[in-house]
């Protein structure tokens, strides 16, 4: 069969219990499990166009040539599985800032996995695609699925049980998300580098690893029983502990801007005033406020008016990664 042109879309995701650190860099195996929500309006669209004249994959992101190194290595795994050569023009777009702490690597590698599966006619299961996506970026394993998703740490040395699985569909608990964008720029320390430095040098890293299983159990339970206060508590604690471990690295990894902290303070004020909202922050300066649908408007308005907040993005829980016609 010919190698086909293929397209896919995947939503980015936000971890409520964070992944921060690896137990195997070559296989990209996380040190701990993690738990996330997949988003609808923050997504990556990727088209793979086979081109027999190419000796290596080419990459265009948001209309401009971009560094293809990471996706070439990723597509090599699919070429090996298919037993085929064949290179692509990879044409992709992100609907939100790239490399800025909004999980572009998650939606990117999930979309690439789904598109490559089709292009090579591999017919892999979502679980296998999650395992492959993980090798591109750990958080990408979760973006294969929609709604609430849990990523297992796994035990197998080859990483075959290190996959994500759906915990509950979006309809189970239709939470919404307001993203306060405080900088559109690419971060200076990538997620991979930030966690590597934290693992190697932070005295708080072992304490972080020790905390995660307990947080996962609390988050899972609070989602299944729709206990907003309990989820708020564990999600904020997970995000702050991740950043605490990174801040204590040498040199310290600082993802916050002044406006990041202002947003955290405002979210806590809003919650004290009776709105159901909590925050989380990933490897970047943006603040994600997770809230009930009826509270999204006041949360978005309150964050948008803070100095240093460039704009707010709004999202609901979204579906898993899909092929596009
Ligand atoms: P983020 O916080 O956005 O996930 P990371 O440092 O984890 O930041 O990952 C950013 C990297 O993800 C980029 O340098 C690039 O290699 C990859 N990436 C982002 N968007 C795409 C895309 N649409 N297609 C392929 N790779 C992408
Ligand atoms: C803070 O998945 O981007 O967003 O596996 O090295 O690509 P790599 O890292 P990545 O790290 C995500 C870190 C985080 C937390 C999370 O999404 O769980
Ligand atoms: Co990332």
TrEMBL record:
The segment(s) forming the Mvd1 C-terminal domain are 177-304
Under the heading InterPro entries, the entry gives: GHMP_kinase_C_sf, Mev_decarb, Mev_diP_decarb, MVD-like_N, Mvd1_C, Ribosomal_Su5_D2-typ_SF, Ribsml_uS5_D2-typ_fold_subgr
User: GO cellular component terms?
Assistant: cytosol
Q: Which UniProt keywords apply?
A: ATP-binding, Lipid biosynthesis, Lipid metabolism, Lyase, Nucleotide-binding
Q: Where is the Diphosphomevalonate decarboxylase-like N-terminal domain?
A: 10-164
Q: Name one GO biological process term.
A: isopentenyl diphosphate biosynthetic process, mevalonate pathway
Q: Name one GO molecular function term.
A: ATP binding
**Which EC class does it fall in?**
lyase
Q: Which domain of life is it from?
A: Bacteria
Q: What is its EC number?
A: 4.1.1.33
Q: Which family does it belong to?
A: Belongs to the diphosphomevalonate decarboxylase family.
Q: What is this protein called?
A: diphosphomevalonate decarboxylase
């Amino acid at each position: 069969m010919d190698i086909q042109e293929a397209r896919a879309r995947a939503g980015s995701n936000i971890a409520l219990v964070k992944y921060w650190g690896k137990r195997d860099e070559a296989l990209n195996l996380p040190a701990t499990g993690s738990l996330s929500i997949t988003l609808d309006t923050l997504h990556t669209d990727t088209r793979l166009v086979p081109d027999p004249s190419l000796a290596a994959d080419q990459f265009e992101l948001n209309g401009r040539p971009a560094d293809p190194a990471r996706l070439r290595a990723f597509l090599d795994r699919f070429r090996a599985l298919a037993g085929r050569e064949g290179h692509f023009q990879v044409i992709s777009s992100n609907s939100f800032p790239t490399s800025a702490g909004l999980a572009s690597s998650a939606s990117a590698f999930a979309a690439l996995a789904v598109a490559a599966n089709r292009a090579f006619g591999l017919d892999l299961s979502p679980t296998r695609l999650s395992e492959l996506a993980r090798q591109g970026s750990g958080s990408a394993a979760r973006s294969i699925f929609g709604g609430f998703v849990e990523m297992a740490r796994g035990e197998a040395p080859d990483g075959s049980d290190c996959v994500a699985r759906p915990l509950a569909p979006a309809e189970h608990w239709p939470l919404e998300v307001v993203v306060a964008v405080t900088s559109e720029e690419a971060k200076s320390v990538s997620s991979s580098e930030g966690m590597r430095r934290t693992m190697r040098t932070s005295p708080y890293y072992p304490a972080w690893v020790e905390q995660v299983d307990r947080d996962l159990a609390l988050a899972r339970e609070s989602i299944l029983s729709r206990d907003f206060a309990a989820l708020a508590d564990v999600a904020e604690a997970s995000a702050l502990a991740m950043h605490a471990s990174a801040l204590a690295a040498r040199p310290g990894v600082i993802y916050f801007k002044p406006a990041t902290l202002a947003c955290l303070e405002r979210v806590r004020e809003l919650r004290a005033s009776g709105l159901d909202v909590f925050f989380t922050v990933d490897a970047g300066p943006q603040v994600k406020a997770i809230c009930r649908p009826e509270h999204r408007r006041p949360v978005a308005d309150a964050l948008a008016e803070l100095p240093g907040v460039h704009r707010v993005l709004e999202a609901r829980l979204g579906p898993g990664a899909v092929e596009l016609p």
